[in-house]
């Protein structure tokens, strides 16, 4: 069986123990093993800091952008092979795998383009300088410079390509080297992407390292100049934030965690017509795309009480038509969950929802004799019903709950405790204004659906131009958002002193407003 090696210290290294087995989740066939045990993590971090860091900081934004473009090119050349791995190791349909791999390529290209725009500077010059007193000589200027450490990226299992690329794009463009740790269960795709980039020699030495396997002490080795960007469960995020070295050295931590994303059908949208159709299509897509294993997937569907029965029946009809099976087969529309542990977790979540809500479709009965499959599952909650489970536990699978509302639904949305995205389907400007004012503070992104948005990707697609992250339960993090993403990897510093000298120091930077 294939043993996945890690790329650290500029070479491929195998872990010492047998490690974890990776499966094809549709067939339960073992595919590979991954172990990071015995890898000298301190040396791996030091190599990234001492070799990759200086190499990247010597480059301009445009030159770093050119590296991102070359990374995208390398992934594009290997696209078919990567899609195949998405199907085999991640249980993705071809369309799901494209969402991940093409998303990775598109995000790298978007940040490559940003690099071109930022041009010849090596750091950012933040706005115009300021006169600081009576004397025009006394001058102040904020600049943002790359941190000297390593950016450790710990990724979730559901987007092995995109998760790797979106974090790496921002860090590399900012000028920080990366040590990426893919989730072990789906590491085959991320590891192959890394191999491809190494083979094509698109990276300066030390710019990206990849640790495959599950050594848990990596975050404990980080210091004051390092940063940690984590995507995964809220529980792990909490544990990482509380590490003594993270607290002692103020290691910057960005957490993207759970999210109980809501879709709200406005009172004006009715239960028929174009707006309603868009709403229905986008909810159904989010339940089944990647078998619901998307951090941005809609989990709670809020509908006016008078339309709840229609929405329930229409959605149940759409979900009943989704063909579940081995995603290697072309007509299959939804694959399995990633592994046995995820399936078990989803079943527990479904049981909890079932204690309060009415099961309309699906449920935890295995739809196929083999593989980690779960049927698309729909619950309904009447107005006034107990809904604690809906608002407290993210069920990371093809599971969605309909909640009927009779008054402004903002308070119900807010019970999610902070989310990545909430989608609103309405053309009533006053209603939109009122609900946005109340729910915006709980979200990183609000998506306002409309039938005239051609080829709308829906709320579940994260775009590189816009912020990805959310407050509260969602982890309080912020990734992407164009240039905003660089801030995490840069240290803002105020230069203060004699004007010609301060201006001279700022000259090598790119002025941004
Ligand atoms: P997880 O157990 O927290 O794992 C996430 C990542 O953290 C994996 O790479 C895992 O490695 C690693 N990890 C776990 N414990 C660690 C430790 N003590 N030290 C260092 N690394 C550690 O989460 P999961 O259950 O696999 O992921 C599913 C969750 O992620 C979902 O609940 C979902 O909400 C969330 N998610 C959020 C987003 C977002 O953008 N906000 C995106 C996707 C998923 P191993 O794989 O080796 O265990």
What does the radius of gyration come to? 24 Å
Categorize the overall geometry: globular
Low-pLDDT sequence parts: none
Bound molecule kinds, no repeats? NADP nicotinamide-adenine-dinucleotide phosphate
Number of helices: 15
Rounded average pLDDT:
96
Structural class assignment:
alpha/beta
How much helical structure, as a percent, in the residues?
25-40%
Largest sheet: 7 strands, mixed
Percentage of residues in DSSP E strands: 15-25%
Instruction: Calculate the terminal CA-CA distance, rounded to whole Å.
Output: 53 Å
Q: Could you characterize the architecture of this molecule?
A:
The structure is a single chain. This protein has 513 residues and is α/β, with parallel strands linked by helices. It is built from 15 helices and 23 strands. The strands form six sheets. Strands 15-16-17-14-13-18-19 form a seven-stranded mixed beta sheet, with helices on both faces. Strands 10-9-8-11-12 form a five-stranded parallel beta sheet, sandwiched between helices. Helix 2 packs antiparallel against helix 4 (94-118). The longest helix has 25 residues, at 94-118. The protein is globular and about 70 Å long.
What's the helix and strand layout?
Elements: E1 2-4, E2 6-8, E3 11-13, E4 20-24, E5 29-34, H1 41-57, H2 61-77, H3 79-90, H4 94-118, E6 124-131, E7 138-146, E8 151-154, H5 160-174, E9 178-181, H6 187-199, E10 208-210, E11 227-231, H7 234-241, H8 244-248, E12 252-256, E13 261-265, H9 274-288, E14 298-304, H10 308-320, H11 340-356, E15 358-361, E16 377-381, H12 388-392, E17 399-405, H13 410-414, E18 419-425, H14 429-439, E19 443-449, E20 467-468, E21 479-480, E22 490-498, H15 499-506, E23 510-512
Parallel strand pairs: 1-5, 6-23, 8-9, 8-11, 9-10, 11-12, 13-14, 13-18, 14-17, 16-17, 18-19
Antiparallel strand pairs: 2-3, 4-5, 6-7, 7-22, 15-16, 20-21
Helix pairs in contact: 2-4, 2-5, 3-4, 3-6, 4-5, 9-10
Bound molecules: NADP nicotinamide-adenine-dinucleotide phosphate.
């Amino acid at each position: 069986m294939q043993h996945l090696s890690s790329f650290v210290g500029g070479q491929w290294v195998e872990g010492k123990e047998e490690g974890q087995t990776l499966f094809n989740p549709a067939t339960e066939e073992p595919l590979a093993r991954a172990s990071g045990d015995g890898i000298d993590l301190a040396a791996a971090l030091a190599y990234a800091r001492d070799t990759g860091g200086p190499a990247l900081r010597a480059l301009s934004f445009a030159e770093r952008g050119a590296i991102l473009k070359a990374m995208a090119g390398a992934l594009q050349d290997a696209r078919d092979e990567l899609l195949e791995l998405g199907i085999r190791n991640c249980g993705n349909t071809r369309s799901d795998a494209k969402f991940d791999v093409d998303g990775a390529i598109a995000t790298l290209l978007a940040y490559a383009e940003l690099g071109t725009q930022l041009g010849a500077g090596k750091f950012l010059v933040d706005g115009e300088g300021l006169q600081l007193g009576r004397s025009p000589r006394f001058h102040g200027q904020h600049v943002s410079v790359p941190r000297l450490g390593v950016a450790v990226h710990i990724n979730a299992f559901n987007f092995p390509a995109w998760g790797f690329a979106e974090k790496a794009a921002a860090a590399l463009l900012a000028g920080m080297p990366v040590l990426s740790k893919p989730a072990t269960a789906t590491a085959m795709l991320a590891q192959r992407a890394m191999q491809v980039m190494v083979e094509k020699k698109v990276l300066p030495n030390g710019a990206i390292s990849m640790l495959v396997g599950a050594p848990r002490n990596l975050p404990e080795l980080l210091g004051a100049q390092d940063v940690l960007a984590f995507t995964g469960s809220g529980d792990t995020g909490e544990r990482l934030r509380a590490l003594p070295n993270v607290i002692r050295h103020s290691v910057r931590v960005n957490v993207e965690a759970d999210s109980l994303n809501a879709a709200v059908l406005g009172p004006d949208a009715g239960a028929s017509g174009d707006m309603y159709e868009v709403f229905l299509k986008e909810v159904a897509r989010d339940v089944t795309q990647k078998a619901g294993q998307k951090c941005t997937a809609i989990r709670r569907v809020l509908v006016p009480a008078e339309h709840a029965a229609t929405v329930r029946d229409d959605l149940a009809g759409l979900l009943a038509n989704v063909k579940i099976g081995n995603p290697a087969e072309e007509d299959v529309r939804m694959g399995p969950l990633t592994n046995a542990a995820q399936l078990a977790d989803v079943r527990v979540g479904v049981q909890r929802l079932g204690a309060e809500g009415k099961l309309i479709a699906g449920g935890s009965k295995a739809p196929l004799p083999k593989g980690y499959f779960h049927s698309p599952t729909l619950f309904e909650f009447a107005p006034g019903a107990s809904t604690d489970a809906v608002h407290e536990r993210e069920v990371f699978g093809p599971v969605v709950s309909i909640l009927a509302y009779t008054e402004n639904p903002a308070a119900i949305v807010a019970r999610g405790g902070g989310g990545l995205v909430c989608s609103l389907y309405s053309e009533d400007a006053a209603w939109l204004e009122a609900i946005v004012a109340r729910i915006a503070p709980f979200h990183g992104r609000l998506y306002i659906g409309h039938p005239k948005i051609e080829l709308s990707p829906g709320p579940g697609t994260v775009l590189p131009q816009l912020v990805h992250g959310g407050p509260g339960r969602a982890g309080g993090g912020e990734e992407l958002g164009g240039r905003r993403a660089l801030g995490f990897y840069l240290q803002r510093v105020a230069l203060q002193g004699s004007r010609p000298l301060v201006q001279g120091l700022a000259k090598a930077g790119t002025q941004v407003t």
